[in-house]
């Protein structure tokens, strides 16, 4: 069996080389992901969870800028699965992007799919995760992209690089949580713990030994590569008595700045330098949820890990605790995010689109739908829903990419609106209840190749409003502006940052506020955009772009591989 797989992968590589997708200097990394259940014990109880290679979190993947990954995914589990390479642009090749029924049909139990992941200009920390139902709760891992050969970090090389993956844990089976959540029409049960590198930390029951520990040497510097793999919460993160120097986000460098804490959205990555410059001791690093909505239940626990200095000394017991912002400190969350600015030096130039040719305004709302006999768990017995421009997205049963490539009719419509169909005071109080009812459709928005796109991502106050971390597949975008309230098309662009805006793939719209992003539509294919709060995805807060082919030979969508999963 392994020989057959090896031969097949070699055939794939030859196929890619003939297409001109593997330049002679590119290094190809081979990995095998076996999706399988494995037993794990936390918080005084045990359960089986879905994993990659039995690991939780999954294996860390290392590469250099411009390399190629070939990952053979074998599904030995009992449920469908897909793997998304979060933040990788996949130039002209969305076939390995991963979102279920958007760019591929799922990998069914007992089958496999060999994904090719082409790295381009990404450099820093990204990650990979399942993109089918809520499987990413346990199927995830870091993707570390180091500088290409003969290039360096834009900061002194650290003594060590340490992935820090923030996760979330339910004592119940995650699929049972999802099934109950969908059936009830209400909100999902809150989690029982947050995790740092798969461990809850010693503040939780039965967790004295379930604490990640990082040993450091005084006066050395460590690069923490932080990933928010939490399902439904933005997170605050801090290290007791240590300032953090922020140097990167979402696979791109930023102008270094010091902060006592970070705010990190689900899907986002933040790179920070930790200087071990304190008295030798034990110090907690901690993370807890940011929650801006009063009255909505959330997991208000704190996960911890321990920084322990090497040497002989009497450690504080318990370790020194970090000073984290209050759970509802919206200004702390917003101000940190607004502090991010691209490095934008000669070695790491940026290219912000200045001449915008396509302007879009997308509203992101939590909604409700009628429920039979008013027995659902949402407001007034209704069922929760969510929408973009008042369309609650319905996943098709054939993936949109295949339908687009093969011109299969009836799978999707191409009339996703450029602006909200209803114009109202998006962040006003006491909005009419009829605004809560979205349409349920499968619509895409078509972009011409090469257009310079600006999207204003506008949150609404329907059902109170909440922060929305919005992720776009296939692109990184420049966050040129953000603010509270309704976007003002005459005033707000005057304050745009067009000099050094951060280059990101996930941006949190502040509660009842907006963010403006720009990118050039130069990556043909089908690309998903969605909120990265998993319950909002389940409710329909998502849409897809089709970016059409350009005229040149290097501006066209590439053909699919021979082993695409079948629906």
From TrEMBL:
Pfam families in alphabetical order: Cu-oxidase, Cu-oxidase_2, Cu-oxidase_3
Domain Plastocyanin-like: 36-149, 161-312, 421-550
UniProt-recorded Gene Ontology molecular function terms: copper ion binding; hydroquinone:oxygen oxidoreductase activity
Subcellular location(s) of the protein: Secreted, Extracellular space, Apoplast
Cofactor: Cu cation
Cofactor binding annotation: Binds 4 Cu cations per monomer.
One GO BP: lignin catabolic process
InterPro entries recorded: Cu-oxidase-like_N, Cu-oxidase_2nd, Cu-oxidase_C, Cu-oxidase_fam, Cu_oxidase_CS, Cu_oxidase_Cu_BS, Cupredoxin, CuRO_1_LCC
Domain of life, source organism: Eukaryota
Catalytic reactions of this protein: 4 hydroquinone + O2 = 4 benzosemiquinone + 2 H2O
EC number(s) recorded for this UniProt protein: 1.10.3.2
Gene Ontology CC terms: apoplast
Keyword flag Transmembrane: no
Keyword terms of this UniProt record: Apoplast, Copper, Glycoprotein, Lignin degradation, Metal-binding, Oxidoreductase, Repeat, Secreted
Family: Belongs to the multicopper oxidase family.
Known function: Lignin degradation and detoxification of lignin-derived products.
Name of this protein: Laccase
Species this protein is from: Solanum pinnatisectum
């Amino acid at each position: 069996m392994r020989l057959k797989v090896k031969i097949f992968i070699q055939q794939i590589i030859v196929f890619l080389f003939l297409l001109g997708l593997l330049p002679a200097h590119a290094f190809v990394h081979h990995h095998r992901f076996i999706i399988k259940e494995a037993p794990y014990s936390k918080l005084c109880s045990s359960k089986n969870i879905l994993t990659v290679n039995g690991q939780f979190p999954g294996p860390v993947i290392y590469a250099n800028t411009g390399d190629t990954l070939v990952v053979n995914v074998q599904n030995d589990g009992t449920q469908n699965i897909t793997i998304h390479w979060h933040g990788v642009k996949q130039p002209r090749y969305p076939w390995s992007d991963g979102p279920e029924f958007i760019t591929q049909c799922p990998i069914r139990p007992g089958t496999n799919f060999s994904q090719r992941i082409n790295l381009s200009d990404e450099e820093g920390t990204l990650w990979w995760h399942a993109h089918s139902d809520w499987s990413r709760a346990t199927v995830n891992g870091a993707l570390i992209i180091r500088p290409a050969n003969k290039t360096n970090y834009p900061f002194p090389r650290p003594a060590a690089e340490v992935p820090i993956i923030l996760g979330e844990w339910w004592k119940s089976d995650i699929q049972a949580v999802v099934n109950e959540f969908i059936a009830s029409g209400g909100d999902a049960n809150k989690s029982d713990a947050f995790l740092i590198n798969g461990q809850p930390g010693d503040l939780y029951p039965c967790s004295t030994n379930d604490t990640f520990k990082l040993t450091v040497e005084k006066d050395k510097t460590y690069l923490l590569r932080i990933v928010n793999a939490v399902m439904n919460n933005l997170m605050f993160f801090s290290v007791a008595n240590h300032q953090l120097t922020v140097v990167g986000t979402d696979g791109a460098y930023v102008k270094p700045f010091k902060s006592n804490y970070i705010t990190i959205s689900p899907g986002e990555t933040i790179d920070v330098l930790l200087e071990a410059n304190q008295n030798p001791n034990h110090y907690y690093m901690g993370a807890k949820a940011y929650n801006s909505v009063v009255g909505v239940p959330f997991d208000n626990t704190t996960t911890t890990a321990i920084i322990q200095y090497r040497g002989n000394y009497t450690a504080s017991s318990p370790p020194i605790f970090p000073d984290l912002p209050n759970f509802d400190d919206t200004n702390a969350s917003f101000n940190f995010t607004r502090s991010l600015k691209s490095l934008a030096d000669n070695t790491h130039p940026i290219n912000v689109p200045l001449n915008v040719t396509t302007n879009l305004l997308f509203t992101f709302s939590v909604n409700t739908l009628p429920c039979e006999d008013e027995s659902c768990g949402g407001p007034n017995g209704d069922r929760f829903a969510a929408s973009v421009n008042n369309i609650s997205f319905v996943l098709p049963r054939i993936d949109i990419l295949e339908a687009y490539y093969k011109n299969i009719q009836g799978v999707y419509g191409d009339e996703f609106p450029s602006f909200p169909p209803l114009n109202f005071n998006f962040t006003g109080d006491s909005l009419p209840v009829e605004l809560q009812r979205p349409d349920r459709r499968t619509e895409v928005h078509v972009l011409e190749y090469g257009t310079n796109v600006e999207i204003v991502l506008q949150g609404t106050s329907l059902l109170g409003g909440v922060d929305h971390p919005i992720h776009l597949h296939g692109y990184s975008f420049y966050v040129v502006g953000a603010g509270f309230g309704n976007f003002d098309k005459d005033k707000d662009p005057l304050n745009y940052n067009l000099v050094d805006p951060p280059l990101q793939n996930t941006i949190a719209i502040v509660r009842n506020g907006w963010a403006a992003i720009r990118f050039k539509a130069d990556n043909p294919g089908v690309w998903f955009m969605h909120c990265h709060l998993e319950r909002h995805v389940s409710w329909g807060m998502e849409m897809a772009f089709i970016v059409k082919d350009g005229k040149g030979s290097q501006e066209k969508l590439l053909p699919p591989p021979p082993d695409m999963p079948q629906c």
